[in-house]
UniProtKB/TrEMBL annotation:
CDD domains: ParAB_family. It holds the Pfam family AAA_31. Residues 1-167 form the AAA domain. PANTHER family: COBYRINIC ACID AC-DIAMIDE SYNTHASE, P-LOOP CONTAINING NUCLEOSIDE TRIPHOSPHATE HYDROLASE. It comes from the Bacteria. This is AAA family ATPase.
Amino acid sequence: MKICSAISLSGGQGKTTTVFFTALLLAQQGKKVLAVDADPQANLTFYLGHEVQPDEPSLFEVLTKQVEVEDGVYGTQYENLFVMPADRGLFKVSDFLSSSGAGAFILKQRLRKIHDMFDVVLIDVQPSRSQICLSAVGASDHVLIPVEANVKGVNSLVDTLDFLNEQAELEAFTGSVLGIIPFRDRWVGNTQTLEGRQNIAAMKEFAGEAPILASIRESEKFKNAIRQGKLLSELDQPDLQYPFEQIVEALTHE
Ligand SMILES: Nc1ncnc2c1ncn2[C@@H]1O[C@H](COP(=O)(O)OP(=O)(O)O)[C@@H](O)[C@H]1O
Ligand SMILES: [Mg+2]
């Protein structure tokens, strides 16, 4: 079982989009996938068509050890794809994690128990230096860093790489950066805009060893696909799906 988090320390950087399409694609290819929603905004939970009921355990109960980890796993409408959902109650988990003193290791420990049930665990992570984020980073073999192809995105990349380096020095992050994914890269016809090109060049300067993966192009088609719960290839847009195919390739060949 491989654990991969999508991390970026600002909102609107493409984390949920990346996890959603990568999870659907992996599942369609026959991999057993668990999508973990580690963002109290709970967009991933919503995209996967799950609604947390008051009496049903979610990631919160799993992290606070009120239930066994498998009790927080639910099927979805997709074959091979399961979700560990979140709701806004997840905001409260930080107190528990920080007072436990081992917050960075709790998710890792908890997921160990379902090691044989899944091929890949994808975690959509809250965009802040929170205990939830520490816990996801601590559990990860790999991280993906989606960032908008603009100045805000480059700043988010710098913050995120700093954070990961700090965690690596503390030996709380022992994984690798699978890649940086430029998000909402604007093209006009077959030409990338100057803004996109310049910002991706800036990302390369900060990336160090981390590869810059194929960019996710700016397009309403992604939102349509999410709304319909479908892959872009199923909506006759196979070219737009390439970034997720590249991630699947990297994840399954690592
Ligand atoms: N290719 C795209 N082009 C433009 N907007 C997109 C694209 N893909 C997703 N979006 C929209 O961009 C917003 C931010 O993406 P999201 O994945 O939710 O970011 P994050 O999870 O990092 O906050 C969402 O409203 C999403 O629907
Ligand atoms: Mg999100």
